[in-house]
Amino acid sequence: MKNIKSNVVNLFMTLLLITTFTSCDEVGDGDLDAGSTSVVEFAGDWWVIALESDGITPAYGGNYVQFTTYNTAADDGTMWIDDNNIFFQIKTRVSTNTSNLTFSGDVNSSELYTEGTVTVSNGKVTKGSYTTSSNTVVDEIYFEAEFDWDPGTIYKFKGHKRTGFLEDENPNY
Fold first, then answer.
1. Which of 76, 84, 100, 162 can bridge 45 by disulfide, Cβ–Cβ 3.0-4.6 Å?
2. pLDDT-wise least confident of 74-78, 106-110, 136-140
């Protein structure tokens, strides 16, 4: 009985050692780079404010809200603009141009939160052009949008990349 117990312990320890050493082994040729998506230059979390057509007055008395931009499942140079259903209720797909960091949507594109339509135009990401409260240099984003619920009014959205630093969270306009 003592030999069986000893054999089981030895077997367990051997399996543990084998698992430990093989789990640390690199896969294939050692290249573990997962790569990136076609919209990597645009993707991320942003602090964005919606402004009236004058580009100065906050729309509906709003302030900065967190937007997210990310690739579509097709990874074909299109991305989602998403305010996470917080304020303007905008989640729509736009096409990107990575050579000049611009983006725009089709006229009357589907808007997924309201099931209406939105036209996104004049979108641009400007690299390293904004300094946050924590003195971190980040990218800026800008785009215009016309919604089916307010035809003829072009809202201007502008903001900057989110750093995640506490002093940069929840900025005010």
1. 162
2. 74-78
Please check whether residue 43 is in contact with residue 37, taking contact to mean a CB–CB distance below 8 angstroms: yes
How confident is the model over 51-89, as pLDDT tens digits? 999 999 999 999 999 999 999 999 999 999 999 999 999
HEC profile of the chain: CHHHHHHHHHHHHHHHHHHHHHHCCCCCCCCCCCCCCCCCCCCEEEEEEEECCCCCCEHHHCCCEEEEEEECCCCCCEEEEECCCCCCCCEEEEEEECCCCEEECCCCEECCCCCCEEEEEEEEEEEEEEECCCCCEEEEEEEEEEECCCCCCCEEEEEEECCCCHHHCCCCC
The architecture that CATH gives domain 44-166 is Beta Barrel (2.40)
